[in-house]
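ok so i was messing around last nite and threw this chain in just to see what happens. nothing serious, just curious
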Amino acid sequence: MTADLPAVPGILSADAIRRTAESIAAAQEPDGALPWFTGGHTDPWDHIESAMALTVGDQWDAAREAYIWSAKNQRTDGSWPTQVRAGVIENHDADTNFCAYLATGVLHALTVTGDREFAAEMWPTVRAGIDFVLSLQTERGEIHWSAGESGSSGEALLTGSSSIFHSLGCAVTLAELVGDPRPDWAAARARLGHALRHHPEAFLDKSRYSMDWYYPILGGSVRGAPAHDRLARRWDEFVVADLGIRCVEDAPWVTGAETCELVLALDAIGDTFNARRLLANMQHLRENDGSYWTGLVFTDGERWPVERTTWTAAAVVLAADALSRTTPGNGIFRDARPS
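result:
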């Protein structure tokens, strides 16, 4: 596959995006896994995020190998272990958000490449993953965030469920495209959306984290005026001028991935001005090889953690694609329907 690469004038050139995609591919392990960094662990969600960026960055062969890794490492119940390092499972528990995200990745890959044969090949893996996730949905609609040997966590997370809401929308669309419609998934997504919008008590209070602030918008369950109002209420708590956004409201730490996810959320509701400004502001985390540091403690100017993470780089690539409208998959978050 040869494709045009995203470019955001004045912020990132197409060549800069190419180098960033190459920095992600350089960390890929021989079996296709995309760890957080060379020698780091792999989790199923960030692995897919990185695969999506490789697809945008004209690294389709590497992206394809990453998706095949997901298919090969799925367990019989449809789940994946939360953490793997060099092929060895470090955390056997399953995170439902992690298990749902493959649907987003495969729909994105199909949209960008047009490779229906590959989407059909991946479909059984997507289907089993979504069925596992929905086995942990409550009658009210929220989805428990994890399951282990002792059973479900019995608790739901707003960020995780918001991401699952998005993945369910992708899964429903993908099901239609491969000729295996799942109206039951659409109904489950509607229940989850209702819980996200109307039952805050269903979710653990993680409001000190910026992800709980913007993820309902990024995931698509909140759009329009309520989305703009939600962002405005806490903008000054999380946004740090010229640097990006805080990961946690009470810590002097800005992080690149969260900033770029907010860029995607802003793009989804039409706030291009602030989206572009934030993408520009976080470029202080960029290295010459195109990789990105995870974050910066701005009170002392120290990068922390001292890691250049594939998923931070991936978030940059996806944000650039969304703002530049370059690949056919640039609207993967913008096009999410709220119900």
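not much to say yet. The mean pLDDT is 97.
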